[in-house]
Fold these 4 entries.
Entry 1:
Amino acid sequence: MNKEKDVVDISDIPAAEPHDPNVVLIFDTTLRDGEQSPGATLTPEEKLEIAYQLSRLGVDIIEAGFPAASPGDLAAVRRIAETVGREPRPGKDGRLRPPPVIAGLARATKSDIDKAWEAVQPALRPRIHTFIATSDIHIQHKLRMTREAVIERTREMVAYAKQYCDDVEFSPEDAGRSDPEFLVQVLAAAIEAGATTLNIPDTVGYTLPEEFGNLIRFLRENTPGGDRVIWSVHCHDDLGLATANTLAGLQAGARQAEVTINGIGERAGNTALEEVVMALWVRKSYFGLDTNILTQEIYRTSEMVSRYTGMVIQPNKAIVGANAFAHEAGIHQDGMLKHKRTYEIMDAETIGLHHSRLVLGKHSGRHAFRVKLEEMGYHLSPEELEEAFRRFKELADKKKTVTEADLEALVADQIYQPPETWVIEAVQVQSGNNLIPTAVVRLRNASSDEVFTEAGFGTGPVDAIYQGINRIVQIPNRLIEFSLKAVTEGLDAQADVTLRIEAEVPASPGPNDQAPRRQIFVGRGLDTDIVVASAKAYIQALNRLLATRTAEESTIEVK
């Protein structure tokens, strides 16, 4: 994939577009709230590629990060603002639309807001999103402030952000557990100071759908100036109600939904973009609402985020799970054969998922391979296509049939990779009953091109491989999770290994954070050989760790 793109001439593209009250704006926070999932840390390159895909998907607002969190996060948000935030994208009608709004999150402090503006300023449509807690439990125990002080801070900081940026969003954190009458006062102060979007977050996933819908309705009807702003909802899934609460909020008049791809996020996650968008699409006659999302890009976006973050999608996940369009029960299969709408309320093609079974074979040529990948939504550079074709031929020699799922996994495994410091040259294992599992590993250092060979011994073949790799790489870490699944059915199926390791990274510069911090890194490997797939996953996690360390250290040096 092309990580960097030439910025298109934007002189003929409007900087804004009027908001249709029947269109729900999709505010995606995958790169901010989603990245806060344990182990979902993304490199700057990965963030940029996801941002480009979110733009292709038709997302209206991309919350690119929390610039005050670290210099690295600020730099990543600014890079997205300079590129994705200045590039028009196609709309549903095929005509070019303005670039997405690029938002940066900031606490209600001047230093946070300064950093947010520094990050999003290059975008054609920048937004500062500031927040302060409003529930009594947060005000008393976290902020140690009074209600009056919270109102005054809201007024002061929204006005401060407004000096930088016309588009200011304000969120009362933990609104779901806040006193509604107090919320009215806080939100009125935000509107008075210049906020253009008011976001109501159910921060801890506490509310029920009817309750949350009533809260949105109450705030819209009772907040002075509420008719001049766009109301937004941001729900978490702690009780499994994030999507239901979001839809209830939209029914009550909210016209912005804050979501993440695959519903990733802190704790139990956020509202899933694909669930809200497809609920509005399938039940348009009920809601009477639409979005600007190009639904055919949903599956590809979901797969990209899953690969980059290492957050595996559960098979029964709504819309994008492996079983979402599968039918095994006889009654269901009989109904589907007679009329597909008996058990499918949407077509798989609507989200960009195709159902071809036997796709290509070992005698297929480059042209057929390229055309098939383009049908699947992959537009590779000549070099990437050549590498993908080589990998395909290797797979076709090992497997009797190559399915679309195999191709999806193969290409994803190739393009969704962190910068390579270490490359696997060879892996050889010996294990069995009454044998000491032994592995010989040969790795190449990508920067020096030097090759290293070591042996490892362990409790099993995978452990032995990892011990051998550790002898070469010499980075202290702890394996905290390991999972294995098959990409397709059959004894010759490709193995898909996902693992998580924990290791130390340099601390961000600052008076309150000088010690190294522990962070989780995800690796994912694919191969018809389980032990090779395991080695690939471990090397990817180590490469991700090294890329993060390099980025943090270079940021600290610049600082």
Entry 2:
Amino acid sequence: MTLPDRLAQLLAQGITAAQTAGDLPAFAAPLPVVTRPRQSDKGDFSSAIALQINRSVNEALAAAGRPTLAPLQIAAAIARHLPADPCLARVEVAPPGFLNLFVAADWLAQQVEAIVRRGPAYYHTDLGKGARVQVEFVSANPTGPLHFGGARNAAIGDTLARLLSVCGYEVQREYYINDRGAQVDTFAATLWRRYQQLHGLDVSIPPDGYPGAYMISYARAIQAEHGDSLLALSEAEAIPIFRRLGLALVQAELADDLAQMGVFFDEWFSEQSLYDSGVFARVRAILEAQGDLYEKDGALWFRASRYLPKSDRDEVFLRSNGEPGYYASDIAYHYHKFIIRGFDWVIDVWAVDHQNQAARMPAMLLALGIDPKRLSIVLYDLVTLKRGGVEVKISKRSGELITMREVLDEVGSDAARFFLLSHSNEARIDFDLDLAVAQNAENPVYYVQYAHARVASILRKAAAQGLSSEGANLSLLNHPAELALLRKMLQLGEVILEAVRHLAPHHLPHYALDLARTFTAFYDACRVISSDPADAELTRARLRLVEAVKITLAHVLELMGMTAPETM
């Protein structure tokens, strides 16, 4: 339980006690909301619950023929009946009816021991209670290397999966392979022609084919394995074979590139399998039986307008040539997710250009009898690469679009993940390649990781001198810089919950930078290892604090998929 949640429960108990004592009338009170005030002199936390329940209180009083109370009086009644708790030093009532809560410094200090003993689990919760959640992300078309823009999808999706895992959810990571349709057929035809060209045949790639040099690389890989044994095939025979061989090459390349970023999937799900297994046919039968499909202009349409009253736009389910419409596979795929595999919650991470598709997903779910609230779609905006303040669009190596691997090779996975997470999902990112590799405090990645390395250095120095933190008297931690560091550390639990509840992983890098800055302020203000024998107990206590900082900082880096270096 986070500290704000604990304080909210204390306030709820105070309201109940005030009602029992007759200082407040009987009424159904909401759970108080506890927030951090902007001004530190207003307490560590504050609640406006007295203002929120003012109307309910006075309606109940009026009904009972009793005098009404001002919000300030309601707040005072709650404060009088707050139960004692070691985390709470005092509560102050402030106009027009706020309750300002001050956390006990001694309780704060004792949390150091709890963090050291429990490790990262200190910050974990059971919010999900074992619910099964699937995070489907990246899912770029398997027709070539992953463009760097897809790296943002990877960073968001993988970090959300990490956050959900520490909040009590059973998480599955999935990549959806769009391995059917015209794009994949064109990819296979291009690959077949490139293979023929490698053997000296005078053929051209299709007019709408894939001209990238990577297609030649794929063709060479097939040539290395099969030699010229495939040349005897007709085009009709070759296309299915080159589709299979090419998709396998691309998937292996995608998996390798994503592994370089620390991203791994539990399932690579084939779109084609929806058709081969009969799932698509089953979904079609369900929709037809419900009257959700109708014919028009030679095509079969899904009656989306039945489920989205504000929209009169229906969607093509089957085109006139018998091929599925743009949304048809989505319906079958999400039927498979919810009905066949039984996920409680599904999170799809999509680029912002899929916003129209996202808006129509509720209609598809409603048609299948699925509560749309069980699906969350995270939309993220574009990434612009810059070097020297100028936008970079073309790869130096190939003269084509810049791939994820190329950027990872230049800046590293840690920098890429931090910068790609540092903005809210909906905001565009200007990714500064120069800043990402800078070895100075201007680079937030360097600054955060250097803070961890400095913490590790302090602990190594202490170990070399035979110093231990065991049995530390933590009540000695009362310097303002120590208490500020403690308060900042305890915020991590709140940050994790905020990120999960709003599917907003950008809170993590901001918190990591704040924690690193707060630690630096502590390091500058408080000598950790003192040579003065009189300071031996204080040294022990501060070493224990530093151990807790190391656990906390390493954990937030881990949640972002980053390393926590011991030296820099």
Entry 3:
Amino acid sequence: MDTYAIPEKVKPAKAGKKQVLLVANGDLRLTANQRCWAAQQEMEAELTKAVAEAGHELVRAHQFKPAEQHGFIGSQKEGMQVFASIDPDAPLIVAEAVWQYSHHILHGLITHRGPILTVANWSGTWPGLVGMLNLNGSLTKARTKYSSLWTENFTAKPFVKNLNRWLKKGSVSHPTDHVVRLKDVKIPSNERKLGEALASQLQRDKAIMGVFDEGCMGMFNAIIPDHLLNPTGVYKERLSQSALYYETTRVSDDEARAVRRWMEERGMKFRTGTVHEQDLTDQQLLLQCKMYIAAVRIADDYGCHTIGIQYQQGLKDLLPASDLVEGTLNNGDRPPVRSRDGSRVLYEGEPVPHFNEVDECAGLDGLMTYRLHKAMGQPVENTLHDLRWGDWDPTGTVEDYVWVFLISGSAPPAHFVDGWAGASSERQPAMYFPSGGGTLKGISKPGEIVWSRVYVADGKLKMDIGRAGVVELPAEETERRWQATTPQWPIMHAVTYGVSRDQMMARHKSNHIQVAYANSAAEADNAALAKAAMADALGLEVALCGTRNKKGKSW
């Protein structure tokens, strides 16, 4: 008889009847985990008290690591070790006070049998809510059941009430009556015809999405499976960051200096210094300008209609950050890039739609928005932002709740007050970017916007669309919000029409939100409806969220 090495069955220790397990997922970068650990400790202490008040014990499923000086799960490898040792049937809370890489723990959450609760602090400085929204979107895509809570105050009655409900029932939900199914909305004939014609054109002629390495920063929710993407007419060209690095090294200094000179002639301000570790240096900017030229040339080589650069991992050890590149690509008015032989200007007079952090959901959305707005005579520049934080305006200038949409590094200058003249560039924080690099920073101008998000749920591509207004806040309030978040990054003060803070958090399946301006409120309404028609014709399941304006005009 043959003898086999049969693995021993290992049963993790059972959690106590009143015990709730806690995991804290973190960044991949040690410097970020160390910097953010104190905020996580503070949040966990408050959450532990809240759980104790409800008659339960919160037990950490993994320990503080003295050698690394933090207690986050810092890799997928570590996450697998943690989940292999915990009770798969125990109630589990994922507590997040920081940005986190969802793939570190997604495997364990997918196979966990007990109830799951994701919890975030409400803070701009410590973006737990951004990390939680990414994790929620990833769990939704993975068809994993979970509940979610967020709060500024862990003793607040609404939070305590919902926490108790989850502890007793294993689930908690939030009202989402602001969501309107597309079949319940009447789209005017002109907008429907345009949307359907653009969808038909895209599916017939097809488009190429250039992806410089997939899966940035653990964002499982930002990857569209090919079998869902291809029916829209969009196909991936899988490119390598190493190719972008190599092409960057082939660009001449003179070509790169011409890019910077073009920007400065239009009023762009570079906040430079001489110390590489802490300042934005001329050498960093030279490399960023080379990367911009390289990205456009590679896009042209492969016939890409939209491209996404991974932004942080991989290139961060070789080149300065790609922010300046990304925001510039998304602008119609940008430095000209000629082919290698000098015979052609590439993508002349138009943006090269770029989806930051290779968020393919934003890539599909951005391409659709570009084509739709171009056909409608609306501004074509669009970008994603982080749904970073929000607060009331203490100056009383704006009565509504004002979101901080804050992209992690760059937005198209067409969105800024005074355009290029209102743009500046500052060094990315060294905690994330040892090689430095400048951002593309500005304050978004007041106006009417359409916001949207493509996401994967129930094995299908879906899209939420809504309306919002960008408002102007006093300079001191803008500065307060910048200092409470990340002052090197571009900011948008947004009021979402008919969608409260908690409704947005309950429904939104991403840390990202796509935005595009229109020339007027009525034209923004038309653009939103035409986008809905286009998405529907492409096979996406569409919902309209909130209202058309602050007064509550329905869809």
Entry 4:
Amino acid sequence: MLRRLLVKNFLLIREAELEFSPRLNVLTGETGTGKSILLGALGLALGGRGSPKWIGAHGADLRIEVVFRSDRPARRMVRAMGIPTEGEELILSREIHPGGVGRCFVNGHRVLQRALRKLGAQLVEIHGQRAEERFRIPEVQRDLLDLFGGHGEQRRRVRELFRDLRIHRQALEEHRAKMARLVEEEDWIRFQLQEIEQIDPAAGEIEQLRERAGSLREGVRQSEWLMLAEQILNAREGAVLESLETLDDRATSLPPEAPEWQEIRAQVKGLVTSARELYRQLSALRSHADEDCNDLPVIEERLERLEGLERKHRKPLLEILDAAGAMRESLLEVEENKEREQAIRAELARAEAALGEAVSELRSARQKSAGKLMRALERELASLGMQDCALHLALEPLAAIREGLLTLPGGSVVGSAGAERVRLEIQTNRGAGFHPLGEIASGGEMARIALGLRVVLGDRGRALLTVFDEIDAGLGATAARDVAKRLQRVSMHRQVLLVTHVPVIAASAERHFRVWKQAEGATNTATARALSEPERVAEVARMLSGDGADSRARAHAAALLTKV
């Protein structure tokens, strides 16, 4: 709801500050005084296009500010911009400086013009010649039909099922891509895994083998020494033991009674005995060493295979074992995914069937509501001076596939809002034929169609400020009274603002603003303010007869104000 509009140095207006009623508000004034300027100022504050040509003669720049009491969707949008909100109040402002430099603000925070325009669409809806493009949009017509028919629950279900179907189809695509990748890699995975499994490595095996091989190599060195020692002692010609035994044997020819020779013979025998014992010990050690050293070639061969595996895969053995585990899982996944695809396809089929059923129910609901809406709207338009107007609302299946749409089995195209586009056609004169709404209706007719829709919709939808432009164009007296009544009915559910030249419409307002234009030196200045009750009588009288002081006109004006 619009609470306040502040305008400074905008075209003819030096400064104007208007406080609005939550119901029906009208702007009146003589032709050319600047009534539409105020609507233009509102549009500028809502993100409309601006120009430095609009800067008035009363300052260097212009400034527009509007204060709204907002609803939750509007405040959510503001918070999404990163702007904090306190309570329900939102302040939108716009500045334009010479040279085309302009600035836009929301709650004192600077924003881009397109952000301000997007927010403005969440606060105000404008109906009239400048807004007729909105009615060309099939989505807008579809939303109006759904709002009238109360199809919110069906729309929600279609939207959720549409989202679910997209998720299931994406899951199937990802699954197929993954399967294609796995199948393509399957032979290579099997080859690598087979090679690893043939070697059959164990965690920590290389370290254990290296330690064992080092120990065995030390044993080999010891065995070689033992072999050499054995050879020197007793395994080759001239060996030490053989030489000592020969020396001992020939010592028998020495004089046995000589004490010095007895000592020598004893020492020789001791050497023979020691050599024999040493040979025995060396032989025993060598036999055990040879048995252990026999394992070294096997260990070295095993170690070479494991180290070769590491070189080939360029990673440690532990990581190779982890990779082998992942390969086994991949191969297992190939088999499991063949079964998983069947489950995904079954879920996808259920999602397609559920969405098909939901869009069919929504289509049936729309078909039932379309006729009711057209009949109710035609009745309203007949009361608004458009007796020859006929309406037709066509539900056309979506045909062209584009981003955001899906095709169901059977070929029907669906979107998140259903499987059809809505096209509202109008015939303004009998026999003229039906044409798309917005192409042939005038600005006044468009505003009256919007008013009729608002009457038919009642309190459905968000309670935005609704602006009607040129709604009184070409109205007769009877139709004007009917328009006034319907404006009051609409204002029971939402705030309404309009410019009018029709006395009965002006008299039906809860708050009445007048715009004056006066000369100030070489320039004209427009001012606007809310009227008191006596001032309203004078203004309505002026609208009736052209003279606010005319007694009969004032009496008629007072009667009109009393009736409403």
